[in-house]
Amino acid sequence: MLGSGFIPESAVLPRRVCVRPDPFLQALPANSEVPDAVRKFHSETAEFTGLCSIQRGTGWLTSLSLWLGGFPPAADTQTVRIRTKLNGQEWEWLRDFGGHETLSHLVYDADRRCVKERIGGLTIWMRPQVRGQKLHLNILRLTLLGVPCPNFLLPRSATVEWQDDQGRFRFDVSAEMPMLGQLIRYRGWLMPVHVNRNNA
């Protein structure tokens, strides 16, 4: 069960919008109706904080895959902090799950018209879609240490992002693999608390 949490308005600094949106918005059709909290999360170099729960699959192959991706340990309720930064043509996301840090490098793959994310030894290609006021992510391709994953083993994702009734950015990130079952699932909420003005 996730805590509702409370961040006073005085702790939330004014935000600045980047000239270039992140790869998720670049991969969407121009007329996509993206919820405000989701669009702001994907348009700003900032720091966000909140709470989440983390579930991990079992088995040594699952554990190896999660270790290669640098994914966090399981937790019923965990503080989470995400810092987004634009570095040239590449976005960097630093996720901090209660002291466990995971760094992602994201770019827009113009050839495939999708998002390309490098996280640890994994590289993932994803295509976003907006359905029912929610942003859905589908995995198109994956490589492990540069080796392509066969299509019949390609993980399936039910990842969704949306805006809740309190105006917060909500996320439910999950992936499962054929024959292995669930790899990981983490879900929770985020609110902006700091702007990185050096990259805005």
Q: Would you kindly provide a written description of the structure presented here, covering whatever features stand out?
A:
The structure is a single chain. The protein is 10% helix and 51% strand. The longest helix is centred in the N-terminal third of the chain and has 10 residues, at 60-69. Residues 1-19 have low confidence and may be disordered. The chain is globular, with a radius of gyration of 16 Å. The chain has 200 residues and is mainly beta. Strand 11 (169-177) and strand 12 form a beta hairpin. A ten-stranded antiparallel β-barrel has the order 1-2-3-4-5-6-7-10-11-12. It has helices spanning 23-26, 36-41, 60-69, and strands at 46-56, 75-87, 90-97, 100-109, 114-119, 122-131, 134-144, 147-148, 156-157, 159-163, 169-177, 181-195.
Give me the secondary-structure topology.
Elements: H1 23-26, H2 36-41, E1 46-56, H3 60-69, E2 75-87, E3 90-97, E4 100-109, E5 114-119, E6 122-131, E7 134-144, E8 147-148, E9 156-157, E10 159-163, E11 169-177, E12 181-195
Antiparallel strand pairs: 1-2, 1-12, 2-3, 3-4, 4-5, 5-6, 6-7, 7-8, 7-10, 9-11, 10-11, 11-12
Primary descriptors:
single chain, 200 residues, mainly beta, 51% strand, globular
